[in-house]
Amino acid sequence: MHDYGHWDVTLVGAFNPADWFGFIYEITQRSTGKAYIGKKQLKFKRKKTLKNKSRTKDSDWQTYTSSSDLVNDLIEEHGKADFEFRILLLCSGKCMLGYEEESIQRAKDVLRARLPNGELKYFNRTIGYKNYAGLEKQTIESRNKSLAIQTIP
User: Fold this and answer.
1) Is pLDDT above 90 for 52?
2) 3-state SS assignment for residue 37
3) Pick from 101, 17, 110: which is nearest to 57 by CA?
4) Residue 114 — left, alpha, or beta (φ > 0 → left; ψ -120 to 50 → alpha)?
5) Distance of alpha carbon 24 from alpha carbon 69, whole angstroms
6) Residue 15: Cβ-neighbour burial (10 angstroms; 0-12, 13-18, 19+)
7) What whole-number distance in Å separates Cα of residue 111 and Cα of residue 133?
8) What is the pTM of this model?
9) pLDDT tens per residue across span 100-152
10) What is the pLDDT of residues 59-83, one digit of tens each?
11) Can you tell me whether residue 2 is helix, strand or coil?
């Protein structure tokens, strides 16, 4: 049996971390319903040295929370118990890890999805390190321009 730390593995089932490169995760704040989707490597490659013959090193994935400073600040402020840490997908290599993170973020529309109260559903502000910070403003401007064009006789 493996120790998965605070990660819920219900969606992927029990797994041997040595068999996988990394995973895509979703962290959800229970009190607000807001979430974050990211990726985490299970191990890192490093240079071989005379002292250290091993080419890989395990990461801190069992205790890892997020690469997002905002999410980490919220976890510190509200406590880990207010958050659910769920592994969505296991990935066998670095390319798959990056591709699947972007695919899932796009499928869930992390930059525009809203909660029923109108607030943004996701803490994500980028997709795969690509910054689309002006997307929301541009979408509103486009909608307004579209409405203005429709009213021209």
Assistant:
1) no
2) strand
3) 17
4) beta
5) 18
6) middle
7) 9
8) 0.78
9) 999 999 999 999 999 999 999 999 988 865 555 555 555 556 556 655 665 65
10) 889 999 998 999 999 999 999 999 9
11) coil
